[in-house]
């Protein structure tokens, strides 16, 4: 893909900075997903626009000047306005969005350092330690924006029942998509990219292809008998749309009938249902969070959950162990059992 052509209409500022386009072309040539290139282009374009406005030469920018860009991001209202569900960075963008905007800027400066155009990265990957300066080298000083590590949100049992009640009124395609998204802990892209030949109904298994995953790791995951019944019903319904093998979930709108269902269409469906159910925080990723937390609650081992989820590192999986409260609950119950036995022994006059 020609990055210059694709991104010029969205962010013309990129075409005025040759090194920026060169860096993006490298990522595109290395096979990064189009959405990743788009996100990198957006983040870098916002930074370059600030540089042009303030008369800063990006290649020569200092950590102080990059800090001004961060300050602007923290005070900038979100473009989504009242649709924003959670803001955790004060008056501006969320902490996760701030990190997302800084990643391409940091990687761009890594590229400039590797090319010998700079001696250090003004963004850096700092980790605080007493006595260290706020430098630009790797591992030195504080990061520009402290990363907030928050547990994923999952609905309460009452909220989950509200979501299910709203989905019961939906077409069979939407119901089976929700069931598979929860049953197999699928990410949005993994779900929408499923193909008919990814299914193994005889063993109630489905294949999640590497090219559709975040970690580029293929995996095979099971689904329940109840979901299998819904899926069989949908496959009979799908024949009326198309008999061709290929994308599993098809659009049923008049304009795009029998075309593959897009990520954005599924997001709109889930958003509409979430609002109808009065659970606005529910999103396409919530079912994955809920499934992995439920597996932790059931006592699945860490590495089993990581394999099921397709996590590249168990660090991500640990969040669901923590969210389930399993470890803390086990320790509390064990300590309470000992305490209870001690109190009973004390009351009855028996030695422990």
The SSE order reads HHHHHHHHEEEHHHHHH
Give the domain tally.
2
Mean pLDDT comes to 83
**What are the low-pLDDT stretches, counting only 5+ consecutive residues below 50?**
82-91, 127-140
CATH class identity of the largest domain = Mainly Alpha
- Oligomer state equals single chain
CATH architecture of the largest domain: Orthogonal Bundle
Alpha carbon gyration radius: 25 Å
Number of strands: 3
Give me the number of helical elements. 14
Q: What does the secondary structure layout of this molecule look like, with pairings?
A:
Blueprint lengths: L2 H6 L9 H12 L4 H20 L9 H13 L19 H20 L42 H11 L4 H12 L4 H5 L6 E2 L4 E4 L10 E4 L2 H14 L24 H14 L9 H12 L4 H8 L4 H11 L1 H23 L4
Antiparallel strand pairs: 1-2, 2-3
Helix pairs in contact: 2-3, 3-5, 7-9, 7-11, 11-13, 12-13
What does this structure look like?
Keywords: DNA recombination, DNA-binding. Residues 14-113 form the Core-binding (CB) domain. This is Site-specific integrase. This protein is an all-alpha fold. It folds into two domains: 3-114, no CATH class; 157-326, hpI Integrase, Chain A (Orthogonal Bundle). Helix content is 51%, strand content 3%.
